[in-house]
Give the backbone structure.
Amino acid sequence: LATGNSGVFEILDFPTIEDSRGDLTFIEASTHLPFRIARVYFLHNVPSASDRGGHAHRALQQVILPLAGSFTVDLDDGSQRASFSMNNPRQGLLLGSMVWRELRGFTKNSICLVLASQPYDEEDYIRDYQQFSLEARRLR
Ligand code: TYD
């Protein structure tokens, strides 16, 4: 996995140990992620009509996991668009820097876990799509 690559998005499959007691999925930053985890946050109690995201990050990388329930993630790297239906807690969606994301269609009691490469920093956000397009084009 290329670290810090702008415009990258891909599905990561995490190892799962299954036995009669249930499934155990694990993530080791040094093995399964292209970054060290600096922050963990989760979205929960999200109304089904909510749209989340609606921004990109200049440097931050994240992995988004549907710990419970499902939701849809729409992505745009400035030239390509893709949509992922997230419903498998063994799979995470890796988002490199400079990816515009929108999250929608949260089912009742769904939980979206996010592993992030940096602490929260509002300066790292691009919340205006035109500005994002401009900066993404400059990187190409
Ligand atoms: P935002 O990133 O816009 O939410 P989302 O992308 O999920 O729709 O963040 C919403 C608010 O929460 C905003 O005021 C910033 C704040 N926030 C933090 O204080 N720390 C964090 O780690 C995150 C992700 C957000």
